[in-house]
């Protein structure tokens, strides 16, 4: 079979770098061979007078001692690749050593602040390069920054003055260089830090928090100061000096060497001027002056409206002013849950604009902040305008507490309590009332955040309902507890109407009874007395028989239970009549004679042996007509009748009949009864009439 040899790849792209005083390093391509390849590197130097050959298996090689070359010189490099199938040589390359010289990184000896804006930097190269013209690049940045600023310069004295710096600022500095003819820069030197000199302190931002005046007019005033927004720290402050005096007096008070950025004063109720300065080793700042108004002094009010809104990642505050001359504002913000305004207040000065922004990350989430803006005109501070804002709203911890009131047939009132601010975690923009009948469809109604109750209408009577209320914020809603109630079966109006009908009916019945029943009773008693007078009479009756007017019945007072008693007594009367008829039959058989007691339905019920004085009297009779009493008799008559002995000619047989009637059935009823004594000599027709 035929065999084709595979030669190694020809070395190309030869590149050489002269590391001053150390080595000459060359590289070529390809960097890797597919088979076993050996390289032979030949170098000539001293303008071709000397040569050096080395072998390697890699695609790079460094010529070390004794093959050391130094500029100025020109050398050549040739690479030969060889494997089992043959050899391949590269092209011969020529190198000017001044063009490929690379030095070690320089050393920064010192960074000295000359002023508040300049450093003097001393440095040197690691090699001895006094015969070379050097090109340098210096870079610097502040310690808290990642942005580098580079400066190029040519150096012969190995010293450089870096200017345009910021006072009292720490910088980080690094340096690199190359010879003027070389194309290779050294690596960056090790970083060196230095701080510029400080300045005289700048003027401060000054603010105050006014406390209420006591009974003596003395009030607490908390002074607060800090560097202006965006102003750099250009000095090392050693302390602060405070001066204050009443506005209409020259009595100056000084407080020196205050080390904190706040101080509490006790001032009287009159207006005061307060100034604060800071000082360092170079001097003191300008005075920051603020006027403290009198207790009852009216100050300017120029902010007409203000709003706060979120514009990720900022909280934005905007306001409108009615006084164009006011161009300085003081913004203060405070968590609403903070107990002491003196400890948690934050503030910031704003100029030339009518808006203010703050990063949301600098505020606590789900905390309501009171943000106030004060207009500042010269040294006078005006009335603030305050709004509330959340940097970030979150879900509420719980929903509203709910109850049901005024439950009717088809209506009910849902009432809920306002949720405390410390658990809202946002602004409540509305409430939604959900209600559902048992087994029915769910309904809802949304109301404004200031509404704390809602009237449900068009409900079904005698129906169970489920109700709950949801409080809605920008972060979502929180559902309150579910409550149940049942609508009424009958309304109050229906109860009143029914009661009126029943009461009216009873009233009409009472009126009808009062008009009709007493007349019937009087007629009955009158007829009964006529029967009694027809069967027996007394001498008085004979004498007064011509006086019909005296014999007429007269009406008497009617007891309250007369109607019931009349009905029951009438039934008892019929029973007595039947009993008396039976007695008459026995008397005819026995041929004896006895006293008869007939119960009148108009007589009050009195037990035996009790007085009749308590019995109500329905009618009055003539003084001489004791036998014609209709509704009662005196106690003497009752005793006389009960104690009258039986006649000797009466037969003893009726006695057992009387015992059979005991106990008297008429005494068992709590109904008024009356007894009549019927004489045995009364004609038979009179008895029958009774």
UniProtKB/TrEMBL annotation:
One of its GO terms (biological process) is glandular epithelial cell differentiation. It is found in: Cell membrane; Presynaptic cell membrane. It is a single-pass type I membrane protein. The chain crosses the membrane at residues 495-517. Keywords: Cell membrane, Cell projection, Glycoprotein, Immunity, Membrane, Receptor, Repeat, Signal, Synapse, Transmembrane, Transmembrane helix. One of its GO terms (cellular component) is presynaptic membrane. The keyword Glycoprotein applies. It comes from the Eukaryota. Its main location: membrane. SMART domains: FN3. Residues 533-553, 642-669 are annotated as: Disordered. Belongs to the type I cytokine receptor family. Type 2 subfamily. Associates with OSMR to form the interleukin-31 receptor which activates STAT3 and to a lower extent STAT1 and STAT5. May function in skin immunity. Mediates IL31-induced itch, probably in a manner dependent on cation channels TRPA1 and TRPV1. Positively regulates numbers and cycling status of immature subsets of myeloid progenitor cells in bone marrow in vivo and enhances myeloid progenitor cell survival in vitro. Heterodimer with OSMR. Interacts with JAK1 and STAT3. This is Interleukin-31 receptor subunit alpha. It comes from Cricetulus griseus. The lineage of its organism: Eukaryota, Metazoa, Chordata, Craniata, Vertebrata.
């Amino acid at each position: 079979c035929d065999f084709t040899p595979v030669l190694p790849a020809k070395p190309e792209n030869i590149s050489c770098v002269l590391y001053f005083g150390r080595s000459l390093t060359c590289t070529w391509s390809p960097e890797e061979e597919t088979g076993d390849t050996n390289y032979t590197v030949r170098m000539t130097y001293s303008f071709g007078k000397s040569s050096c050959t080395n072998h390697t298996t890699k695609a790079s090689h460094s010529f070390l001692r004794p093959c050391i070359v130094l500029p100025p010189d020109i050398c050549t490099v040739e690479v030969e690749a060889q494997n089992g199938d043959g050899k391949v040589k590269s092209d011969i390359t020529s190198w000017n050593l001044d063009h490929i010289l690379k030095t070690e990184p320089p050393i920064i000896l010192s960074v000295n602040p000359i002023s508040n804006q300049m450093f003097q930097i001393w440095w040197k190269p690691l090699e001895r390069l006094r015969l070379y013209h050097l090109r340098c690049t210096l870079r610097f940045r502040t310690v808290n920054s990642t942005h580098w600023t580079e400066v190029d310069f040519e150096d012969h004295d190995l010293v450089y003055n870096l200017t345009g710096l910021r006072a009292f600022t720490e910088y980080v500095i690094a340096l690199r260089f190359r010879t003027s003819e070389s194309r290779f820069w050294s690596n960056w030197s090790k970083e060196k830090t230095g701080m510029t000199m400080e300045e005289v302190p700048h003027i401060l931002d000054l603010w105050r928090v006014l406390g209420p005046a006591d009974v003596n007019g003395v009030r607490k005033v908390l002074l607060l100061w800090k560097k202006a927004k965006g102003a750099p720290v250009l000095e090392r402050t050693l302390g602060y000096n405070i001066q204050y005096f009443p506005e209409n007096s020259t009595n100056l008070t000084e407080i020196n060497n205050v080390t904190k950025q706040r101080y509490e004063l006790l001032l009287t109720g009159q207006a005061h001027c307060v100034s604060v300065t800071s000082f360092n080793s170079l001097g003191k700042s300008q005075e920051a002056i603020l006027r403290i108004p009198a207790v009852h002094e009216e100050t300017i009010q120029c902010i007409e409206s203000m709003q706060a809104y979120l514009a990720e990642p900022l909280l934005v505050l905007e306001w409108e002013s009615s006084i164009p001359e006011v161009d300085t504002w003081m913004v203060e913000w405070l968590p609403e849950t903070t107990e002491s305004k003196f400890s948690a207040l934050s503030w910031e000065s704003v100029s030339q604009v009518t808006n203010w922004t703050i990063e949301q990350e600098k505020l606590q989430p789900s905390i309501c902040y009171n943000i106030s803006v004060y207009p500042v005109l010269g040294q006078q501070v005006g009335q603030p305008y305050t709004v509330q804002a959340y940097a970030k709203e979150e879900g509420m911890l719980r929903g509203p507490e709910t109850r049901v009131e005024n439950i009717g047939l088809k209506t009910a009132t849902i009432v809920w309590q306002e949720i405390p601010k410390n658990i809202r975690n946002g602004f409540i923009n509305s409430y939604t009332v959900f209600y559902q009948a048992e087994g029915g469809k769910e309904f809802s109604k949304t109301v404004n955040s200031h509404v704390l109750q809602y009237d449900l209408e068009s409900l079904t009577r005698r129906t169970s309902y489920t109700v709950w209320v949801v409080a809605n914020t920008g972060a979502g809603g929180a559902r309150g507890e579910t409550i149940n109630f049942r609508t009424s079966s009958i309304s109050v109006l229906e109860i009143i109407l029914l009661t009126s009908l029943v009461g009216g009916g009873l009233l009409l019945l009472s009126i009808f009874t009062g008009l009709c029943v007493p007349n019937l009773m009087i007629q009955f008693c009158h007829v009964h007395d006529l029967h009694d007078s027809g069967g027996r009479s007394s001498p008085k009756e004979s004498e007064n028989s011509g006086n019909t007017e005296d014999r007429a019945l007269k009406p008497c007072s009617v007891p309250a239970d007369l109607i019931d008693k009349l009905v029951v007594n009438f039934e008892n009367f019929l029973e007595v009549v039947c009993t008396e008829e039976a007695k008459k039959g026995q008397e005819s058989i026995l041929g004896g004679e006895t006293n008869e007691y007939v119960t009148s339905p108009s007589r009050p019920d009195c037990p035996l042996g009790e007085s009749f004085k308590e019995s109500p009297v329905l009618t009055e009779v003539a003084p001489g007509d004791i036998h014609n009493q209709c509704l009662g008799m005196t106690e003497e008559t009752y005793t006389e009748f009960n104690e009258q002995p039986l006649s000797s000619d009466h037969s003893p047989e009726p006695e057992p009949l009387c015992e059979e009637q005991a106990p008297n059935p008429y005494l068992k009823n709590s109904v008024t009864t009356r007894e009549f004594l019927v004489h045995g000599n009364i004609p038979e027709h009179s008895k029958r009439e009774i």
